[in-house]
Design a protein that fits this description.
By secondary structure, the chain is an alpha+beta fold. Helix 2 packs parallel to helix 4. It contains four helices and seven strands, in the order H-E-E-E-E-H-E-H-E-E-H. The strands form two sheets. It has a four-stranded antiparallel beta sheet with strand order 2-1-4-3, covered by helices on one side.
Length: 145
Amino acid sequence: MKELFLPYELAKIVKENGFDEKCFGYYYNETRLSYPQDGERDYFGITLFTNNFLKTHETPSFRLVAAPLYTQVFKWFRDNHNLNGEVYQVLLSHNDEYREQKKNESEYTFRINVNGIPEFDINNIYPSYEEAELFCMKELITNLK
């Protein structure tokens, strides 16, 4: 289930750029991804969650960074920045022999629509959907700045 959440470094960046949605998980002091239970208490006895949602919380002794799902952040980009990232499977247009060799493998890439105009990443092919999703998210973040 960990692969559904944005990595800590990206979660922190989107938070710094205005993402403030409720999340189902959190990073504790930058390293530990946790999925809380309703009313769970942390080491200091502070009730962190109500209805399994969390926003980023910080005190001098610890920091909790909300861990959003990729789908939440993709939606946030669409709704707030008019940026739409899409990951898709590459269709093999090579000869029959190549297609036969690759029939059990999938390759992925992504595109980003900026103000409705698609920008394709045709130079980069990724071996998994998750890797293409990660690089798509990084590119969306780059477009914020």
